[in-house]
Amino acid sequence: MSSLKLDSNGDLDITNNSFNLVIREEEVEQKIKTVLRTIRGECYLTPSKGVPILTEVMGKNKNLNLIESLYKNEIISIKSVESLDKFNLLVNDNRSMNISANVNGNIQINEEVS
To answer: Tell me: the pLDDT tens digits for 3-47?
Structure first.
């Protein structure tokens, strides 16, 4: 299976007027990063997809266990993710979070979510 490749800004990666593709581990990694950045309600056709950032993540005194669970569930919901072997959520002072995960035994994810 393959997917269209996205650049670091989340835009389609086009080289020499051609779309680039990702496969295997790179495809899984890209899917996870896309899911982690998706805010619930922003996708017109599937408004239930994404993390409920506006209601459950943002604000003071939020439940970190709940937030961690929300992100883990989003990762696990991806069909090509067979196992979530390691997960770590770190809340930064600058109102962002670092998420690191190891999936399918050999795919390492490090993503800043703001």
So the answer is: 899 988 888 889 899 998 889 999 999 999 999 988 898 888 988
The pTM of the full predicted model, rounded to 2 decimals, is 0.84
Contacts by 18-27, CB closer than 8 A, 24 or more apart? 25/104, 25/106, 25/107, 27/1, 27/2, 27/3, 27/80
Angstrom CA distances, 23 to 16, 26, 100, 103, 104, stand at 20, 6, 21, 16, 15
Which of helix, strand or coil describes residue 17?
A: coil
What domains can you pick out in the chain, each with its CATH number? 25-113 (3.10.450.40)
